[in-house]
C-alpha cells in the first residue's frame, strides 16, 4: 500500500490513522472498541468509493503523477524476462530518462522502450525527472530500427510531462529529434504498441507514441500540453490548471470517445500505486491481446493501419456561412 496521499485523498488518510490509533489503544489497554473500529471502517469504505468513482480530470492528472505509481522499469520487471538494456544514441550520449532493450514477453521477443522517472531526488536528477532530451529520442529510434531489422514487435511505455525544454536540449535540436521519430515510426514494418502508463504530455509523448495501438491506463492522461502549460497560455496563470484539464479532454475515457485510444487498461481500485502486481497483471493481459492480433498483420498492413489510424484522429465542424450581400444596385 502507498503511504503518500494526494490532497483529495487526505480524508482517507485521516480515517486510516484513527482506525490504527483505536486498534493500538485496544491492544495496549485491553479494552474492546471493535464497534467504533467497524463503524470507521464502513465509513472509510464508503468514502473511498465516493472519491475514486467520481474523480475529476484534474484529479486524474494528479493520480498519473503519484510519486509511488509504477514506472516503466517496474512493468519491465513484472512482465518481461531476459531484459537486455541498451544505451546510447551513437551521436551524442545516453539519456537516462529513456530506457530500452530487448526482452521476452510470454515467449515472444520484443523491444521495450520507455521514459523513466525517479523515486527520490537523486534518482530524479539522474533521470532528469522523466523529461527526455534529444539523445533520448535518438536512442529510442535507434532501438526501434534495430527491432525493425530483427522483425521484433515494439512496446513503448510513455510517462513524461514532455520533452526537456532547456537550452542544451534546443542546442541539440529536440524538435528535429521528435520529428524524425514521428516520420520513421510510421515506416516501421513491425507491430508497435504504445502504452500511456502515467503522464502523456505534448511532443515528449508523441515522440514515442506512433503505434498501431495506443493503450491508456485508467488514471493516465494524454494531451497536447500539460494542464499547467495550457493554463499559463490561456489564463496567464497556472492556478487554472484544473479548468484547463477539463477543457483538454485528456482522460482515458475521453481519449476513447475521440478515437485516439484503442483500450483503457483498468487499474486497481485507488490507482496503480495501490497494487503494483495487479496493475501489471491488467496491463499484461491487454498487451498480450493486442500483440497477438498485430503479429498476424503483414508489414504493409501494419504500416497502412498505423498511417490510417493517425490520419483519422481529430474532429472538426464545418459551418455554413451566409452569402455576402452584394453592393451592386
Tell me what you see in this structure.
The protein is an alpha/beta fold and 329 residues long. It has 14 helices and eight strands. The chain has helices at 10-29, 34-52, 57-64, 72-79, 121-126, 134-150, 167-171, 174-186, 202-206, 227-234, 241-248, 252-257, 276-294, 299-311, and strands spanning 81-85, 98-105, 108-115, 154-160, 192-201, 213-217, 221-223, 263-265. Strands 1, 2, 3, 4, 5, 6, 7 and 8 form an eight-stranded mixed β-sheet that branches. Strand 2 (98-105) and strand 3 form a beta hairpin. The longest helix has 20 residues, at 10-29. It starts with 9 loop residues before the first helix and ends in an 18-residue tail after the last helix. The model has no long low-confidence stretch (mean pLDDT 93).
Largest sheet at a glance? 8 strands, mixed
Tell me the β content: 5-15%
Relative helix content: 40-55%
Number of strands: 8
Going by helix content, strand content and strand pairing, the class is alpha/beta
Number of helices: 14
Return residue spans where pLDDT drops below 50 for at least 5 consecutive residues.
Answer: none
Distance linking N and C termini? 80 Å
Radius of gyration: 23 Å
Mean pLDDT: 93
Tell me the overall shape.
globular
Could you state the order of secondary-structure elements as H and E?
HHHHEEEHHEHHEHEEHHHEHH
Amino acid at each position: 500500500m502507498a503511504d503518500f496521499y494526494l490532497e483529495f485523498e487526505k480524508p482517507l488518510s485521516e480515517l486510516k490513522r484513527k482506525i490504527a490509533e483505536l486498534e493500538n489503544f485496544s491492544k495496549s489497554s485491553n479494552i474492546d472498541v471493535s464497534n467504533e473500529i467497524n463503524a470507521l471502517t464502513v465509513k472509510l469504505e464508503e468514502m473511498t468509493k465516493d472519491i475514486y468513482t467520481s474523480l475529476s480530470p484534474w484529479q486524474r492528472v494528479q493520480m498519473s503523477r503519484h510519486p509511488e505509481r509504477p514506472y516503466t522499469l517496474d512493468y519491465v520487471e513484472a512482465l518481461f524476462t531476459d531484459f537486455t538494456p541498451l544505451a546510447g544514441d551513437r551521436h551524442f550520449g545516453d539519456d537516462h530518462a529513456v530506457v530500452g532493450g530487448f526482452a521476452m514477453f510470454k515467449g515472444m521477443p520484443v523491444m521495450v522502450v520507455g521514459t523513466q522517472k525517479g523515486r527520490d531526488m537523486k534518482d530524479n536528477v539522474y533521470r532528469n525527472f522523466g523529461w527526455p532530451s534529444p539523445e533520448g529520442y535518438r536512442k529510442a529510434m535507434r532501438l526501434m530500427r534495430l527491432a525493425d531489422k530483427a522483425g521484433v514487435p515494439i512496446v513503448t511505455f510513455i510517462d513524461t510531462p514532455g520533452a526537456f525544454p532547456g537550452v542544451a536540449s534546443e542546442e541539440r535540436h529536440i524538435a528535429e529529434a521528435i520529428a524524425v521519430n514521428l516520420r520513421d515510426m510510421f515506416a516501421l514494418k513491425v507491430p508497435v504498441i504504445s502504452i500511456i502508463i502515467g503522464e502523456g504530455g505534448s511532443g515528449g509523448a508523441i515522440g514515442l507514441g506512433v503505434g498501431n495501438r495506443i493503450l491508456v491506463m485508467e488514471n493516465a492522461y494524454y494531451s497536447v500540453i500539460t494542464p499547467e502549460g495550457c493554463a499559463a497560455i490561456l489564463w496567464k496563470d497556472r492556478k487554472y490548471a484544473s479548468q484547463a484539464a477539463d477543457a483538454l479532454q485528456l482522460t482515458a475515457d475521453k481519449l476513447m470517445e475521440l478515437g485516439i485510444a484503442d483500450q483503457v487498461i483498468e487499474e486497481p481500485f485507488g490507482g496503480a500505486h495501490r497494487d503494483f502486481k495487479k496493475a501489471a497483471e491488467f496491463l499484461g493481459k491487454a498487451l498480450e491481446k493486442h500483440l497477438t492480433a498485430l503479429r498476424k498483420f503483414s508489414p504493409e498492413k501494419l504500416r497502412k493501419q498505423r498511417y490510417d489510424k493517425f490520419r483519422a484522429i481529430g474532429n472538426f465542424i464545418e459551418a455554413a456561412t451566409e452569402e455576402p450581400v452584394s453592393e451592386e444596385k
